[in-house]
Write a structure and sequence with these properties.
- By secondary structure, this protein is mostly helical.
- The chain contains six helices and no strands.
- The chain starts with a helix and ends in a 7-residue tail after the last helix.
- About 25% of the residues have low confidence.
- Keywords: Lipid-binding, Signal, Transport.
- GO terms for molecular function: lipid binding.
- This is Bifunctional inhibitor/plant lipid transfer protein/seed storage helical domain.
């Protein structure tokens, strides 16, 4: 009985540890990260390397951001297009 319980607990721990990274990837598009992009957005400054890195990391989420009325204005603005162009990221065609 104790061995069976131990095996079940181990199975559950392993299963949860595998699902945790999947869950974080699925939820990655629920917020937009613009750290380092504020001067580029507000003042038209050149984007920082940190800003370009954040934009490249979020590239798979751009279509979700465009469809989301909360994030749409940030992704479709002229400033956002300029940042993507400067960072060498193609504008999404959703």
């Amino acid at each position: 009985m104790k061995f069976t319980t131990l095996v079940c607990i181990t199975f559950i721990v392993v299963l949860v540890s595998f699902l945790a990274p999947i869950n974080s990837v699925i939820q990655a598009c629920d917020k937009i990260e613009i750290t380092g992009c504020i001067p580029a957005i507000l003042y038209g400054d050149k984007p920082t390397p940190e800003c370009c890195g954040k934009m490249k990391a979020q590239q798979p989420c751009f279509c979700d951001f465009i469809k989301n009325p909360v994030f749409n204005k940030y992704v479709t603005s002229p400033q956002a297009r300029a940042i993507l162009k400067f960072c060498g990221i193609p504008y999404p065609t959703c």
